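Hey, quick one: can you model this chain's 3D structure?
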Amino acid sequence: MTGRGNQSLRTGRGGQNLRRRAVLSIGAGTLAALAGCSGGGSTPTPTASYDDWFEGVDNFETEVDRTGRDETEVSVGADDGLAYAPAAVRVDPGTTVRWVWTGNGGGHNVVAEDGSFQSELFDEEEATFEHEFTAAGITRYYCAPHRTLGMKGGVRVVA
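Sure thing. Here's the predicted structure for all 159 residues.
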């Protein structure tokens, strides 16, 4: 499904499932940046790849390699309740990222800076939101209520 993404929402309490499928156009041109190599065959540092996106984000040290997997999880409300963990992941095209709420830090959501996806606002533990990343590039995202407090994340899809 090149150029399309699937989303689903599920609340963890009581086993209730709420599914919403949305078709999204996610082309390389709509992503924030393309990952690449600099001179000498070295890969740019994650901070340079994300520009200054992670400036002031307490839990960002480096991008976590999650390539070679069909899906991966990111915690919402990690650390002091105002972070995603890991803050940044590197995945292959076709990988589904599942954000799982910890129940800490109040209500959170996941909003793509480029507008390609947005979850509902959840505050309950084990609520989930999923998005399949299909095109190479970087997607920066944030929690709308806590963006100014540094609750930001990123996904880099490498071809």
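One thing worth noting: The two ends are 15 Å apart (CA to CA).
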